Amino acid sequence: MRFFAILSVAAVGLALTVKRDAATVEADVAKISAQVTTLDNAIVAFPQTGGSLVNALAIHTDATNLITTLNGAVVDVAATPQLSEDDGRTILSAVEAIEPTILDALTQIVVKKPAFQALPIGGLPALILQDLKNLKAATSSFANGLITIAPADLVDEATQLAQDITNAFDPAIAAYSS
C-alpha cells in the first residue's frame, strides 16, 4: 500500500514539472467548452415540472466533471509559458465563445430552481449551491491562470472577460442561497 502512495506522490510531482504549451491549453478550452455545452443542455432539458431525480443528479455529475476538467486545466496553465500573441488571441477567442453558454446555464439553473425544489430529495438545492460555488472557484482559478500567461496587450480584455464570467455566478449562487 505504501508503494502506491509513494508512486502517486511521484506521479503528481512529475505532472507538475512537465511543461505544457498553448496547444495543451487550447485542448483544455475545447474540452471545457464541450462540457459547458453538455451541462447547459442538461439544465435546459430539465422540465419545469415532473423532472426526475436521475436527471437532476446527471446535472450534478456534469457539473462535477466540469469542475474536474477546470482544475486540471489550471495545472496545465500553470505549467505553460507566456503565450505568443497569436496563441493568446486564439485562446481568448475560444473562451469568449463559451461565455454565452455559461450565461445561459446560469440563467436556466435559476429558472429551474422550483423544479429542483419539487423533487422528493430535500438536499438537492443545497447540492446545486455547492456545485455553483465550486464551479465559480474553479472558473476563477482557470481564468486567473490564463491572465497570468496572456500577452501583455490582451491582459485587460482577458481580465474583463474573467470578471464578467465569474460575476455571472453571483445571481445563481444568491438564488440558491435563499
Strand tally is: 0
Taking all residues together, what is the mean pLDDT? 92
**C-alpha Rg, in Å?**
18 Å
Please state roughly what percent of the residues sit in beta strands, choosing from under 5%, 5-15%, 15-25%, 25-35%, 35-45% or over 45%: under 5%
Q: What is the helix content?
A: over 70%
| Largest β-sheet summary | none
Succession of helices and strands: HHHHHHH
Shape summary: elongated
Task: Tally the helices.
Answer: 7
**Low-pLDDT regions:** 3-16
> How many separate domains?
1
Distance separating the two termini: 45 Å
Q: What class, by secondary structure content?
A: mainly alpha
Descriptive overview:
This protein has 178 residues and is an all-alpha fold. It has one domain (20-177). The protein has seven helices and no strands. The chain has helices spanning 2-17, 22-45, 53-78, 85-111, 113-117, 124-149, 155-177. It is elongated, with a radius of gyration of 18 Å. Residues 3-16 have low confidence and may be disordered. Keywords: Signal. It holds the Pfam family HsbA. It comes from Favolaschia claudopus. This is Hydrophobic surface binding protein.
